[in-house]
Amino acid sequence: MRRERVSDDIYVFTSDLYAQVTATAVITAEGIVTIDTLPFPEETRAMVAFLKGLGRGPIRYLINTHWHGDHTNGNFLFGNVQLICHQLCAQTMVDMINLKASRARDKRPSEEEELPVRVPDITFDEGEMCLHLGGKSLQLIPSPGHTPDSIVVYIREDKVLLAADTMMPLPYFVGGSYRDFLNSLKGLLQLNIDTIVQGHGEVLLRGEVKEAIQSNIRYLTIIQQRLAEMIKAGQSLEEALRRLDIESCGKSRISLNGMVQDLHYANLRALYQEMTQSNDRSAVPDRQLHQRV
Ligand SMILES: [Zn+2]
After folding, report:
1. Of 150, 162, 176, 244, whose CA is between 20 and 30 Å from 91?
2. Residue 165 Cα, ligand 1 centroid: separation in angstroms?
């Protein structure tokens, strides 16, 4: 686990064990707020031990940015700290517990499935939530796209955005929504941001912030345009995958130790499917129109 300080009161912890996942701690005059956990218990335990050792008060709240295990597996290591997330996040966690329980009847659970799941205590659904604690204002802003329940956390006093998976070296919307992702990224451009802590990968500093958001918007726009051209020209998904490598869509193939390539191809598959399905749907009114004539 790597630890860095992005302002006097904000520490970022980055996993060495899986996909450079980040978790963050905000130190306030009335205790500590942690945003997300690390994927493996040993790293989350080390993070919690470090924060307790600071002598800056107890951990008061833990915020989950979305339900994925790489960001929430460590929830159970925070004792009776109050846990906050979007209503959809808590709901999905409960659904996953039920799903796992029904699967467990058929097969031996994997190691991840054996971790105890801790579901959040406090949730919000309509609009934003602002947590005021010890001189800090943490704005919890819904940002669907990576998943429907995704939020970002903006710390007003420090102009630091904890973007979770709404900002990664490559936007990944499989299991979420392409269109929502684009809107959420455009929304980030409205915030006054000095630093972005991405859900995976390096912290982005002042000079890099706008360009990084715009680069992700460009990527999403490019893959949609290219796929639209190819679908119009009657090209198959296989042809599209062959022709649209990650670099031709404006992104590097080396980020997150090369994992971004898999994410890119999964994005293309999902979007191609979505676009061809909606083409089918748009053909329906056409046929109906002809029938009427
Ligand atoms: Zn993630």
Report:
1. 162
2. 6
